[in-house]
Amino acid sequence: MPRAQILVTLIAALAAACAPPGPTVSRGEGLYMRHCASCHGSDARGGGARAEALSVAVPGLTGLAAAHGGTFPSEAVIATIYGYRGKQLGATMPEFGPLFDGPTVGWITPDGDVIETPEALVALTRYLASVQDEI
Ligand code: HEC
Q1: 58 close to 51: Cβ distance less than 8 angstroms
Q2: Alpha carbons 134 and 4: distance in angstroms, whole number
Q3: Nearest one of 50, 74, 49, 71 to 124, comparing CA atoms
Q4: 22 in ligand 1 pocket by Cβ < 6 Å?
Q5: What is the pTM assigned to this prediction?
Q6: Do 115 and 105 touch, CB atoms closer than 8 A?
Q7: What distance in angstroms lies between residue 123's CA and the mean position of ligand 1's atoms?
Q8: Chain centroid to CA 34: how far?
C-alpha cells in the first residue's frame, strides 16, 4: 500500500473512532446507568441507592407510556430531564443541562417542528422509550 493511502486509511479509522456515537439507545443506556440509575434504579423501576436518602419518592420510569395512554411522552421526558420544569417545581431531581452541551440533532416534535436537541438527551429519551412496560 502506498504511504499516502496508509495515511488516509489511518486518518479515516481515527476519525471513526473519535466520532460521537450519535443518539443511540445503547449510548442512552450508558448515560442512564451513569447519571440516573442511582435514583431511578438500574432497571428504571425506582428504588436506586440514592432514592432512600430523599424526602420525596423517586418514580419508576418504565410506566410512562402506560400512564400516557400507550404513547411514550417524549417531549415531557425531554423537558423533565433537561430541567425546564425542575426549578418551577422546586423539584429534587438535579438539572442535567450542562451534561448536554455536546452536539445536537434535529428532534421532530408531534407538531412536525424540528428542534435542535442535544444528542445525549435524545439518546437518554430513546433508551427510556425502549424500556417501557408492555401495555
Ligand atoms: C437525585 C435523584 C435523581 C436523579 C439522579 C435523577 N432523577 Fe429523575 N426524578 C427524581 C425525582 C425525585 C423525580 C420526581 C419529580 C421530582 O421531584 O423532581 C424524578 C422524575 C423524573 C422523571 C419524570 C417521571 C414522571 O413520572 O413524570 C423523568 C422522566 C426522570 N426523572 C428521568 C431521569 C433521568 C433520565 C435521569 C438521569 C439523566 C434522572 N431522572 C436522574 C430523582 C432523580
Answers
A1: yes
A2: 54
A3: 74
A4: no
A5: 0.83
A6: no
A7: 16
A8: 11
**Burial degree of 1 (CB within 10 A; 0-12, 13-18, 19+):** exposed
Whose CA is closest to atom 1 on ligand 1? 93
Ligand 1 within 6 A of 59 CB? yes
Give domain 22-130's CATH number out of 3.40.1350, 1.10.10, 1.10.12, 1.10.760.
Answer: 1.10.760
Q: What is the dihedral of CA 111, 113, 118, 120, to 10 degrees?
A: 40
Instruction: Calculate how far, in angstroms, residue 116's C-alpha sits from the geometric centre of ligand 1.
Output: 22
Is the CB–ligand 1 distance for residue 127 below 6 Å?
A: no
Query: How is the chain split into domains, by residue range?
Result: 22-130
* CB of 94 closer than 6 angstroms to any ligand 1 atom: yes
CA 56 to chain CA centroid, Å, is: 22
pLDDT digits (tens, 9 = 90+) for 13-60: 666 666 656 899 999 999 999 999 999 999 999 999 998 888 888 999
Q: How far is CA 32 from the centre of its chain?
A: 7
